[in-house]
Amino acid sequence: MIQRLIIPLIIVASPLLAQEEWVELEEVEAVTVADISQQSRDAAEAGDAAAQLQLARCYFTGCGVPQSTAQAMHWLRKSADQGYADAQCHLAECYNTGNGVDKNTTEACRWWVKAAKQGHYEAMYRLGMAHLSGEGVQKSALIGISWLKRAADTGHTEALCSLGFCRLQGEGGTQNFAEAATLFRKASEKGHANATFWLGFCKLHGLGTERAPQEAIELLLRAADGLSIPAALQLGRCYETGTGVPANQDTAFDWYWQAARMDHAEGCYRLGLMLLHGRGCKPNKEKAAKWFKKAAEKNHARAQQKLEEMHQSK
Length: 314
Known about the structure:
By secondary structure, this protein is an all-alpha fold. Helix content is 75%, strand content 0%.
């Protein structure tokens, strides 16, 4: 009889003990965070640039201290002014996005230059992209690619993919499909979804690498799993036309739908075409017009033309 009473008491007590342990753990973590922020403050006030950046991050997030953008910027500037590359890159991003300061892409690039000259790979990548777009700095494909190459040489995945795209398009020089495929492969091996898409694209069409449709489809599927919209679109096209896989309009519809629901203009347009002509679905002009309109609102010229044609045919 005693044993039968003990079991339920243990069952009831266990959650209470677990709850108490959880509360104690939270209290310990709170003390630890407070200790870390205080240690960062002590070192920051003593002039440690790394600690100043850490304290700035604490103020940005409210971790261990009351959240304060003004205090965050104060300590971030102190760190950046000492020449700390991580802080300079962080300050550049603040100017680039308008976080804590008025947005100023020229000032952002000024700080990226400071960090990039110290070999900061993220700053080199961002500066390269800025030169390619001409936002906040002189537009120059040659300078942009030069910075991208330096960042890519460190293994920076975004730089590898962006440089690969430049080589694929011939940006700043002649096209080099073989180098593009190599760069995409390196970024893909690091898990970069869009690089995986571009590597699949190269293998699908034999650009800079041996044409391998089956391997290309596998790469495109992996990229699509990583939420690469271009991969979803390409898979839709492959299944629609029977490129690398047996033609399957139902599957093509599904891939176009995936791209369209991520609000991609070309995906909306392609889905509209499938609905208009009844490929992979029943014909539905009303729904087709809805997706053409979504694409047209994003300045998709062919979608705008389709809407005009549908209006004139009424």
